[in-house]
């Protein structure tokens, strides 16, 4: 599916345009570009930042700065220039003409990383679809923009042969991929429907990339689940394909938990749309578990990015439990009530997935949001209804059982929702 050419480690120069519009989040965005480049296996040899009111429509950073960039690229023997913003076909073509090396933008870099990480058939189809949608308006002919895809960063894509196809055939390919992904999505919808009919709650984990979602997923499986999950690693986009497992939580019972792809600032729109079928786990979930890296000082901006993606998915109306992760990396005063607060969340919980702190409280918060608060109830059950005793034990925490002449009395902690099943036998 992909044209892969293994080459030596590439050296890159990162460039960015600091405008009045982008100045607020500039430092975080440019630091992310560094992380993305390193994730892609590129050595960052240098960087160049240009301050302008607006982007130059011809050379992005301006012709003079582009000529300066050529001298830097020659001096550092750079193989590629990576721009922090999405470039137009004209800007890429003109920059490559002056600098003499290939130029890619942030979107291409992210697509390259996704192509490297995709393992399942669905994941590979999704990435290819996003790449083709990105490339379709950028078919400029057989200049450097064609030969540059021979290898290295940005080369893991549909390849030169597909790029030589005319626009109609590219659109046909996009349509075919969309139909194939739709079929896969239909199969997932059937599974989701079967789960909903079985009254099993679904919880989808969302969050900024590298917030610790995969580590929390593994920790919750060890604590409350069956089966195994891969160890979370400290790298961007470690999870691409949605992973789903079953947990059995106290008072709540079985819950389906899904770990989804991490979000990032300026996540390409084509990528969100292409991964929409995978993100149906988010769309259809009963509750969103929003994992936040509390040790990152930029967590409020990262949380805002997550909610923006949820807005794009038209599913900002879901119940949200925000989990402030990595509190073991903070001083006590840093995670006080005032410091960690998410106004978009229905409830919040501070935890450390790595150190397994706050997990019981997290399970309780999940229970409260899904089924209501846990309370103590007194159930007065006639002996002829004795078959319900096992159900009561399975539905909550039995505190005491006493036996009277005509009935048994059971004191039990359980959720409001489960208590409704025994409404005729509840003692006020």
Automatic annotation (TrEMBL):
<dbReference type="InterPro" id="IPR016496">
    <property type="entry name" value="GTPase_HflX"/>
</dbReference>
<dbReference type="Pfam" id="PF01926">
    <property type="entry name" value="MMR_HSR1"/>
</dbReference>
<dbReference type="InterPro" id="IPR006073">
    <property type="entry name" value="GTP-bd"/>
</dbReference>
<dbReference type="InterPro" id="IPR030394">
    <property type="entry name" value="G_HFLX_dom"/>
</dbReference>
<dbReference type="InterPro" id="IPR027417">
    <property type="entry name" value="P-loop_NTPase"/>
</dbReference>
<dbReference type="InterPro" id="IPR032305">
    <property type="entry name" value="GTP-bd_M"/>
</dbReference>
<dbReference type="InterPro" id="IPR025121">
    <property type="entry name" value="GTPase_HflX_N"/>
</dbReference>
<dbReference type="Pfam" id="PF13167">
    <property type="entry name" value="GTP-bdg_N"/>
</dbReference>
<keyword id="KW-0479">Metal-binding</keyword>
<dbReference type="InterPro" id="IPR042108">
    <property type="entry name" value="GTPase_HflX_N_sf"/>
</dbReference>
<keyword id="KW-0547">Nucleotide-binding</keyword>
<feature type="coiled-coil region">
    <location>
        <begin position="160"/>
        <end position="187"/>
    </location>
</feature>
<comment type="subunit">
    <text>Monomer. Associates with the 50S ribosomal subunit.</text>
</comment>
<protein>
    <recommendedName>
        <fullName>GTPase HflX</fullName>
    </recommendedName>
</protein>
<feature type="domain" description="Hflx-type G">
    <location>
        <begin position="201"/>
        <end position="374"/>
    </location>
</feature>
<dbReference type="Pfam" id="PF16360">
    <property type="entry name" value="GTP-bdg_M"/>
</dbReference>
<keyword id="KW-0175">Coiled coil</keyword>
<keyword id="KW-0963">Cytoplasm</keyword>
<comment type="function">
    <text>GTPase that associates with the 50S ribosomal subunit and may have a role during protein synthesis or ribosome biogenesis.</text>
</comment>
<keyword id="KW-0342">GTP-binding</keyword>
<keyword id="KW-0460">Magnesium</keyword>
<comment type="similarity">
    <text>Belongs to the TRAFAC class OBG-HflX-like GTPase superfamily. HflX GTPase family.</text>
</comment>
């Amino acid at each position: 599916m992909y044209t892969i050419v293994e080459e030596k480690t590439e050296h890159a120069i990162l460039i960015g345009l600091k405008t009045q519009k982008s100045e607020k989040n500039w430092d975080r965005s440019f630091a992310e570009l560094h992380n993305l480049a390193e994730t892609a296996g590129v050595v960052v040899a240098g960087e160049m930042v240009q301050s302008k009111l607006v982007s130059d429509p011809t050379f992005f950073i301006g012709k003079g700065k582009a000529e300066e960039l050529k001298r830097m690229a020659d001096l550092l023997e750079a193989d590629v220039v990576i721009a922090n913003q999405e470039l137009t076909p004209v800007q890429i073509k003109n920059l490559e003409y002056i600098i003499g090396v290939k130029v890619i933008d942030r979107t291409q870099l992210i697509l390259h990383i996704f192509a490297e990480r995709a393992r399942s058939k669905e994941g590979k189809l999704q990435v290819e679809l996003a790449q083709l949608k990105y490339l379709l308006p950028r078919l400029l002919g057989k200049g450097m923009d064609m030969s540059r895809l021979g290898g290295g960063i940005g080369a893991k894509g549909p390849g030169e042969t597909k790029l030589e196809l005319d626009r109609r055939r590219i659109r046909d390919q996009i349509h075919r991929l969309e139909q194939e992904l739709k079929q896969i999505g239909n199969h997932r919808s059937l599974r989701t429907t079967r789960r909903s009919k079985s009254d099993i709650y679904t919880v989808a984990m969302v969050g900024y990339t590298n917030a610790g979602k995969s580590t929390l997923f593994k920790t919750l499986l060890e604590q409350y689940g069956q089966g195994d999950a891969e160890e979370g690693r400290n790298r961007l986009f470690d999870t691409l394909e949605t992973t789903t497992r079953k947990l059995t939580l106290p008072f709540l019972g079985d819950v389906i938990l899904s770990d989804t792809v991490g979000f990032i600032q300026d996540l390409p729109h084509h990528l969100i749309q292409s991964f929409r079928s995978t993100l149906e786990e988010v769309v259809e979930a009963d509750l969103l578990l929003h994992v936040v890296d509390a040790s990152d000082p930029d967590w409020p901006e990262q949380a805002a990015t997550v909610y923006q993606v949820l807005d794009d998915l038209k599913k900002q109306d879901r119940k949200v439990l925000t989990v402030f992760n990595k509190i073991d990396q903070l001083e006590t005063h840093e995670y006080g009530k005032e410091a960690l607060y998410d106004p978009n969340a229905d409830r919040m919980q501070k935890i450390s997935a790595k150190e397994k702190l706050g997990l019981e409280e997290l399970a309780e918060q999940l229970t409260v949001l899904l089924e209501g608060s846990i309370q103590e109830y007194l159930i007065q059950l006639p002996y002829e209804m004795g078959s319900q005793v096992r159900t009561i034990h399975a539905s909550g925490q039995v505190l005491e059982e006493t036996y009277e002449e005509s009935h048994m009395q059971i004191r039990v902690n359980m959720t409001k929702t489960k208590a409704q099943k025994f409404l005729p036998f509840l003692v006020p």
